C-alpha cells in the first residue's frame, strides 16, 4: 500500500504533509529533512519552536488567530467562493497516522499524480466511482483536483490534502477560536496556487497556499439530526471513520473505501467565512497562507471524536490537543463575509453535504 501511495503521488503529497506536520521543510531542498523534532507539548512544544530551529514561527503574520466578528471588517462586496470539482469524490483516498495528526491524501481522476500512476498501470485494480469512468474524458475544469477561487483569494488554488486537529475533550481541539471559543475538531483543506508548478515554489511566495478551515461541533440535538440525515446522504466524516479506526498505530495507513467529496466535508453554507493572511500552523510556520475559515460548523458525534483520540503517536501516547495556541494579529485585517444561501437554510441541501450548525456570532452589524 505504501509503495502504491508513493507512486500515485510522486512524493508530492508527502512533501506537503511534512510542510504542515511532523518534519522540517527546507525551501531550498526538494526533500524532507527530519533534522528537528517538534511537538505540541513540553520542551519541543509551540512556545519553544523558535528556539529549536524554526525562527519563522516567531513572525508577525502567524496562525491560528482568534476570530472576533466584532473586530472584523465586514466585506459585503467580497464575492462568494467559486468551488469547482468539490462535488466529485477522489478516485483514491488514503489516511495516514503521521505521529501528530491524521492526514488524508486524495488523488482525483485526471490529476497529475493519477496520470503518472495510470502510465505505470497502477490503477488497474482500484475501484472507480461508477462503471465506465475509466473511459470518460473529463473536460477542464472538471478534470484533476478540485479548485477554489474568488472570495478575495489571490488566485486559483487546487486541493492538495486535508488533515485534522482535535482535543482530549469537547472543549478544546480546534486551532482557530471564535471570540475565544474553541471547538472539538478543525479540518484544514490545504490548497496550492496553480500558478506555481511545485510546492517548493509555492512556499517561497506569500500567495502560495490557501487553507479552507472547517470547524466541527457536537450538538444535543444529534438524535433528531440523525433522523434528518437518514433522508439524505450521510455526513462525509462518517465515510472517513473506518479508515481512521485502522490507523491507530503510529505510521499506519489505510485506504478510504468510499471517499467523500470535499463538499460533503464542508458546511452547507460556504458564503459566510472569515479571511486573513497568515501562516502554516506547524513548523516551519511559513507566512504564505491565505486563510478561509467558515463561519458555520459541521456536526461531529462522540464516536468519531473518540476514534481520533484513540490514535497513537510517539511512545504510544494518544494523539490529542494537536493544536497551536492563538497567535497575535499584529494589526492584520480580518475580513468577514456574511450572507445566507439562496433558498431554504435548513442545515442541509440537495448536494448531500454534511449537516451543519450555524454559529451564533455576537455582532448584529455582521
Report the span from N to C terminus: 48 Å
Structural class, please?
Answer: alpha+beta
Q: Bin the strand percentage.
A: 15-25%
DSSP helix count?
7
Radius of gyration: 19 Å
CA-based shape: globular
Estimate percent helicity.
10-25%
Report the average pLDDT across residues. Answer: 78
- DSSP summary, beta strand count: 18
Query: How would you characterize the largest beta sheet?
Result: 14 strands, mixed
The run of helices and strands is HHEEEEEEEHEEEEHEHHEEEEHEE
Q: Catalogue the unreliable spans.
A: 1-35, 114-143, 220-234, 341-357
Explain this structure to me?
With 366 residues, the chain is an alpha+beta fold. It is built from seven helices and 18 strands. The longest helix has 10 residues, at 236-245. Mean pLDDT is 78; it is low at 1-35, 114-143, 220-234 and 341-357.
What does this entry show, briefly?
The chain contains seven helices and 18 strands. With 366 residues, it is α+β, with helices and mostly antiparallel strands.
Task: Please give the structural blueprint.
Blueprint: H1 2-9, H2 12-20, E1 24-25, E2 32-33, E3 66-67, E4 73-74, E5 81-84, E6 92-97, E7 102-107, H3 112-119, E8 147-150, E9 157-166, E10 177-178, E11 185-193, H4 199-202, E12 209-217, H5 222-229, H6 236-245, E13 253-255, E14 273-278, E15 289-294, E16 296-299, H7 302-309, E17 335-337, E18 356-358
Parallel strand pairs: 3-10, 4-17, 12-15, 12-16
Antiparallel strand pairs: 1-2, 5-8, 6-7, 6-13, 7-9, 8-9, 9-11, 11-12, 14-15, 14-17, 16-18
Amino acid at each position: 500500500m505504501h509503495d502504491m501511495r508513493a507512486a500515485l503521488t510522486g512524493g508530492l503529497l508527502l512533501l506537503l504533509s511534512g510542510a504542515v506536520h511532523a518534519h522540517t521543510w527546507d525551501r531550498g531542498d526538494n526533500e524532507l529533512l527530519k533534522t528537528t523534532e517538534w511537538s505540541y507539548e513540553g520542551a519541543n512544544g509551540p512556545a519553544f519552536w523558535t528556539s529549536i530551529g524554526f525562527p519563522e514561527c516567531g513572525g508577525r503574520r502567524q496562525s491560528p488567530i482568534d476570530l472576533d466578528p466584532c473586530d472584523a471588517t465586514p466585506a459585503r462586496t467580497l464575492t462568494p467562493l467559486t468551488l469547482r470539482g468539490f462535488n466529485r469524490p477522489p478516485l483514491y483516498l488514503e489516511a495516514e497516522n503521521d505521529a501528530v495528526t491524521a492526514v488524508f491524501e486524495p488523488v482525483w481522476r485526471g490529476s497529475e499524480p493519477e496520470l503518472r500512476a495510470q502510465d505505470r498501470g497502477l490503477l488497474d485494480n482500484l475501484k472507480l466511482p461508477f462503471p465506465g469512468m475509466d473511459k470518460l474524458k473529463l473536460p477542464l475544469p472538471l478534470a484533476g483536483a478540485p479548485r477554489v477561487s474568488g472570495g478575495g483569494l489571490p488566485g486559483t488554488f487546487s486541493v492538495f490534502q486535508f488533515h485534522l486537529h482535535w482535543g482530549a475533550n469537547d472543549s478544546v481541539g480546534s486551532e482557530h477560536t471564535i471570540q475565544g471559543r474553541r471547538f472539538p475538531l478543525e479540518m484544514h483543506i490545504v490548497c496550492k496556487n496553480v500558478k506555481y508548478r511545485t510546492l517548493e515554489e509555492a512556499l517561497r511566495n506569500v500567495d502560495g497556499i490557501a487553507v479552507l478551515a472547517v470547524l466541527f461541533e457536537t450538538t444535543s440535538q444529534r438524535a433528531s439530526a440523525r433522523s434528518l440525515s437518514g433522508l439524505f446522504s450521510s455526513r462525509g466524516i462518517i465515510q472517513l471513520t473506518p479508515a481512521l479506526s485502522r490507523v491507530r498505530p503510529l505510521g499506519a495507513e489505510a485506504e478510504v473505501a468510499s471517499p467523500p467529496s470535499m463538499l460533503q466535508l464542508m458546511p452547507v453554507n460556504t458564503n459566510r467565512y472569515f479571511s486573513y493572511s497568515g501562516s502554516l500552523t506547524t513548523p516551519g510556520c511559513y507566512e504564505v497562507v491565505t486563510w478561509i475559515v467558515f463561519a458555520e460548523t459541521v456536526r461531529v458525534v462522540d464516536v468519531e471524536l473518540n476514534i481520533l483520540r484513540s490514535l497513537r503517536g510517539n511512545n504510544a501516547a494518544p494523539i490529542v490537543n494537536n493544536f497551536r495556541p492563538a497567535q497575535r494579529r499584529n494589526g492584520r485585517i480580518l475580513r468577514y463575509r456574511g450572507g445566507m444561501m439562496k433558498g431554504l437554510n435548513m442545515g442541509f441541501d440537495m448536494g448531500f453535504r454534511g449537516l451543519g450548525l450555524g454559529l451564533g456570532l455576537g455582532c448584529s452589524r455582521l
